Amino acid sequence: MEETKILPNTWKTALSLLLKRLTSNPAKPARIAILGVGNQFRSDDGAGVLIARALSKCECTQDTDHLLVIEAGHAPENTTGELRRFDPDLVLIIDAADMGETPGTIQWIPAEDIDGMSASTHSLPLSMVAQYLTLEINCTVALLGIQPGSNEVGEQVSPEVLQAVHEIVEGLEALISGVNLPVQVRD
């Protein structure tokens, strides 16, 4: 049998397959945490925070206890206590990441590939946060990266990155609704 390879830019497919794997045991519903990471005062770097904020308003994330959405800001390591208490099977980090692509490009980045991602606006590199979560909570960690156009000081997000934010929010709403995950939201 031939192994299926997922192309890096097929984030919906990669996340969908991972969610199917995690939700395959009806006796133990999967617990999923979504971390919106970034600095909203650094232009496109605020994309992850915008996504978490939009998801927190989505009907699909209300009244549940198996999905946690967190606006992690520029210091995602500050959420580790809450994540430990929540005990997720998957932590999906969403952040602007310099991947050398066109601004607004969205890529699925497995935990083992996070090491090479640039996150100069964060307190700790995401690779350290991902490694800690994997070891401490024993969960799967993945990154959904959005190529920024600018990380300059300012609250204006570029149109390309704003389009990517909308695409990710719509895609996650559909995936969450499709797997019927119960959700917790924290601002």
Task: Write structural notes for this entry.
The chain has five helices and six strands; from the N terminus they run H-E-H-E-H-E-E-H-E-H-E. It is α/β, with parallel strands linked by helices and 187 residues long. The protein has one domain (11-16, 30-186): HybD-like (Rossmann fold, 3-Layer(aba) Sandwich). The protein has a six-stranded mixed beta sheet, with helices on both faces.
CATH topology: Rossmann fold
Strand content: 15-25%
Series of secondary-structure elements, N-terminal to C-terminal: HEHEHEEHEHE
Q: For the report, how would you describe the main beta sheet?
A: 6 strands, mixed
Query: What distance separates the N and C termini?
Result: 45 Å
Number of domains: 1
Number of strands: 6
Instruction: Determine and state the CATH class.
Output: Alpha Beta
The rough form would be described as globular
Sheet with the most strands: spatial strand order: 4-5-3-1-2-6
Which residues form runs of ≥5 with pLDDT under 50? 1-9, 180-187
Counting helices, strands and paired strands, the structural category is alpha/beta
Query: Helical residue percent?
Result: 25-40%
The rounded Rg comes to 15 Å
CATH architecture label name? 3-Layer(aba) Sandwich
Average pLDDT taken over every residue: 81
CATH level 4 superfamily: HybD-like
Count the DSSP helices: 5
